[in-house]
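Q: Sequence in, structure out?
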Amino acid sequence: MATEIKTIGVLTSGGDAPGMNAAIRAVVREAIVKGKKVKGIKRGYAGLLQEEIIDMEAKDVSDIIQRGGTILQTARCEEFLTPEGQERGARVCKEHEIDGIIVIGGDGSFRGAQKLAALGVNTIGIPGTIDLDIACTEYTIGFDTAVNTAMEAIDKVRDTSTSHERCSIIEVMGRGAGYLALWCGIANGAEDTLLPEKYDYDEQKLVNHIIENRKRGKQHHIIVNAEGIGHSASMAKRIEAATGVETRATILGHMQRGGSPTCKDRVYASTMGAMAVDLLCKGKSNRVVGYRHGGFVDFDIDEALSMEKTISPYQFEISKSLAI
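A: Exactly. Output:
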């Protein structure tokens, strides 16, 4: 018989994402409804090791659902990658009478949760990353807001690009994953979309495409470039030299992480936060909440981390065919 959960800890780890606050709010309020105490752990695993732990009540999460970022703050923690750091984290949980922890973050955060579970701390992961690069789920908290932010920014760049008859290279975030770039490429009608999973680094193809479009009377050329490829500024210089077309690079950067979350990010994050609490209350541990095939599900963390996620071949193909 699993020990009854009395106190639940919650932390956000890794990069921040719009909607994390909605998840925190749901964790706190669902836990209180279930008769549990809640402790907020500030600055992720770094805060756990430093014992930056606070009691949380329903009022502490009032008026946060519409805010971007995370009220618990977040940080990277090299120490938690070590066995010593992980063991210390488990000890801190016991000293603060935390029976279970809900970790909101990406794959790296889930590996930390996996280690805590192995050390006897009940853990549930919630996917929070704008990169959409977690294989077990079709949705991650923050992606919808980030991709809409990037889409709106690219629309604005297109306006000025058309006015000046430029080629614009617009770099979006995503680390080594191309999902933000792919979605923006399709949504913004980009002439070229460069993904780390697919790009062959043949810039001559880009040059030829720009020249062909100019001959057909196209007044602008939008290239959406993924962060995992990068080097947008130097790419712009080479393309301008090869084509004679004025070319500018725009790196959207961390603006994509901020802003008020969309309705989808608020609702899905809230659902995942509540579900994580419910799983702990049922005696579950070492699980990750996900969204697949139209429903919210959960996976074993070990299974989730062993999965591989790939770019949809069909979506990649139509990103090219719709750009003719």
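The mean pLDDT is 96.
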